[in-house]
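#onboarding

Welcome to the new folks! Below is a worked example of what a typical request in this channel looks like: someone posts a single protein sequence, and someone else replies with the predicted structure as tokens. Don't worry about understanding the tokens yet, we'll cover that in week two.

Example request:
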Amino acid sequence: MTPEEIYRIWAPTESVWSAWAIPVPFAQIICLSPDAEEMKKNAKACEINLNNAQDLAIVSDLPGGESIHVGLALALRGFRPVPAIDGSPGPLPIVASREMEVSESPLRSVAVDMKGILRGLCAGAEILKELTLRADARPAFLLDAHRMAEGLTITQGMFDNRWKAIPQDFPSGRLLMEKGIRRVLLIQRETGQPREDLAHVLLRWQEAGIPIFCADKIDESLMRPLQISRPSNFRSLWYRALAFLGLRRGAGGGFGAWPPESSGG
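Example response:
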């Protein structure tokens, strides 16, 4: 399958949520021998306890490949997985296979390792094309908790593909309400407040009247109400520019570029 075909399986034209499936990771993907059967088996085995979820949307803020895996597990239960990932995996096309062989390139390292994401997108396309999901299926927005590569020093020769989630990358709280969403469950490893960039999204939804819950597993019994703390520069006209400060935009959209060469002596 071509990158466009893979993207269209994840973001079919009939889905009301496809406008928020970001195409950036798909643009450079080459899928070889995706292990769809193994991934489908693992997705079926994923423990999900949601008995009353007709009005529930999910935001998965787990590490890359794990977030895609959760999205596929939810797809098997009728949710529409929406990859909202805005980072480029590298400067050249990358071959995603069971062994995750990487095509030859001058790339020595990347800030955010996206191999698990690419493998999941490839295998996931094989799984999703066999499913019949409703056009208005409840959304599961998929993020990468490692998107900002916290603690990493960006050095010369490292492809800087760090990125942030921003409110414009998600539907408004009003639209969610119009589509029947009355609750949002945030899945993340840490209990408590979301990452600051995601707080800008979730607080807007909360202000629109949508309660936010948090858990480290997709389990109704573990859902706890979460009052989102107001992040810095919330609703500021300059927030988007400030949020992207220090990040590197790719020429084709999304985030990912080489750091400028040092001019020091």
